[in-house]
Amino acid sequence: MNLISQIFLIILIACFTGTVSLGFWRVFQPLLLKRDPRLVYATLRFVCMMYIVPFGYLIVRLTWHGYLRTESIWKPNFEMAGDMDLVFGIAGIIWLVFLIKNVADSMVEFIRWKRLCRYRIPVADEQVCAEFLKVKNMLHIHRKIGIYYSSSIQSPMVTGVFQYNILLPKDHYSREELTVIFCHELVHCKHNDPFFKICSIYIGEMQHMTSGAKHILPWINEWSECACDVSAVCALRDVVTPRRYFEVIVDLMERMPENSKPDYIFSTLYESQQSLGRRIEYMKKYVKAKRGARISAFVLSFLFVVTSMTTTYAASYGAAGVHDELYQEAEATQGESLETPELEEVFVPASENNDYSRIKYAKPDLSPVAPILSSGEMATFNWTVEPGTRFCSGKFKVSSGQKIVISASISPSTQTCWIGIMDPHNNVRYVEGKGGFGHSFAVSETGKYRVFVQNRGTKNVTSSGSYYFE
Asked: Residue ranges of the Peptidase M56 domain (predicted)?
C-alpha cells in the first residue's frame, strides 16, 4: 500500500498544482497576448511542466511535518482499514482503465503517423539543401536535423521528439517558399514544440479526470504556431514582410488536397484555414503592439510565474492535508483506535533496565540537535526487530503533564513484544502484547524521551505503527 499511496499523492498534487497554474494562465493570457504571443506559449509550457514535474510533491515531502514523517520520508507506512481498500481499489481501477484506453488511442495514432512518415527519401537537391543550411545558420541552430521528401504527407512538418527531421511533400518549391517553410519548421525545432506536444498528450492521458487537462493539447497546437510565426517573421524581417510570409503559407495551403487530414500530432506549417486565420489575427496584434513593451512583458511573465509557484506551494499543502486526513482516518494502527487501557503498564528503573540482548536506534534520528516532532504530530515507524532486541526511536522533547501515545502492529502476531517509552534517566515503562495493540503513557517530568519496541519472542518480527505526544 506504500507505493500506491505515494502514486495517489503525486497524481493528486499534480492535479492541484497543474489546475491552479492553468487557471492563472487563462487569467494572464489576454494581458500577455497584447505584449507578445510568444509569452502566452512560454507560460503555457510552464503550466505543462507543473503538470508533469512533481514540484509540489517534492515540496511536501521535504517540508511536511504532519503524517508524512521526515524520518520515513522515502518509506511511508500507510495501511488502509475497513472499506477504504475497496473504495480506493474501485476508483483506482476506473482511473487505470481510462488511462489504458487513452494510451492505446494515442499509440494507435502515433504509430499510424510514424508509418506514414516511414516512406521518406533524403533530399538530394543542392538548391534545397543550400537554402536549408542558410536558414539553419541564420537561426543559430547547431543540432543535427534531417530533411526528407515524403509522398504520404500534404504539409511540411517536423517529426521526432529529441532527434528532429523535417518532411516535405513531394512538390516543387520556389526559393521564397523554401525560405518560409524552413524558417517556420526550424523555429519549431528550436522551440522544441514536438516535445511539448508529446507532453500535452501525456497530461491529457494522466489527468483525464480533470476538465482542463484535455484542452492542453489544442492550446499547445494553437499557441506553438502563433509563437513560431512571430519568431519566424522576426528572423525573416530583412527577407520578407509579415504579410508576404502569410501569403506564401496561404499559397502552399491552396495546393494541399481537399481530402487531406489536418489532425497531425507533429508540428506542421498549416493545419486548417480556421487556425491560419487566427494566426494572422494574432500576428496583427503583435505588429500593432507598442515597441519598448519588453519591460512590461517581463513583469507580467515574472508575476505569472511567482503567482503560480506561490499558489502551487499552497495547493500542494492543501492536497497533502487532504491526503493526510484521509490516511490518518483510515490508518489501521492509529493509537486512538487501537489503545487498549486494560493492558498493564510495567515500570523498570534504569538500574534494572537490562532485559534485552542488544539495543538498536532508528536512523536517521528525528534531529541530532533540535527534535522537530511537535505536539500533536504523528511519527510512523516500520522496524524489523530481532529476538531479544530493543528497537528505539530518536529522542523528542515532551513536557510534564503531556502523554505519549504509541500503537503498533506486530507480525507475525504470535510473537510477544513490548512497546513503551524510555525517560531522560533511562527508566522504562512498557506494556506487553501481540498483534495490534497500543497504550498511552503519562509524562510526569519534562525531558527527552524515546519510544521503543522490544521483541520478547523467538523469531524476527516486523513492527509498524505510529506515536505522538499531546
From this structure: 92-282
User: Three-state DSSP class for 292?
Assistant: coil
- Euclidean distance between the first and final Cα of the chain, in Å? 28
pLDDT in tens, 391-448: 999 888 899 999 999 999 998 888 899 999 999 998 999 999 988 899 999 999 999 9
The residues pairing with 437 across neighbouring beta strands, listed in sequence order, are 408
CB burial readout 238-249, b (16+ within 10 A) else e: eebebeebbebb
What number of CA atoms fall less than 13 Å from residue 191's CA on the CB side? 30
190: cell is 528550436
* Unique residue bearing C-alpha cell 521528439: 161
In the 8-state DSSP scheme, what is residue 350? Answer: G
**pLDDT per position as a tens digit, 140-159:** 998 899 998 887 777 888 88
- H-type alpha helices, 36-142: 37-52, 55-63, 84-118, 126-138
Assign domain 337-469 to its CATH architecture.
Sandwich (2.60)
The answer to whether 465 and 408 are in contact (CB under 8 A) is yes
At residue 23, what is the residue type? G
CA distances, 442 to each of 156, 405, 445 (Å):
76, 9, 9
Residue 16 near residue 319 (C-beta atoms within 8 A) = yes
pTM over 0.70: no
363 vs 131, residue with greater confidence: 131
- Residue 348 pairs in a beta bridge with 428
Measured CA distances, 458 to 353, 358, 387, 417 (Å): 20, 14, 5, 10
Hunting for cell 507533429 — which residue is that?
266
pLDDT at residue number 81: 39
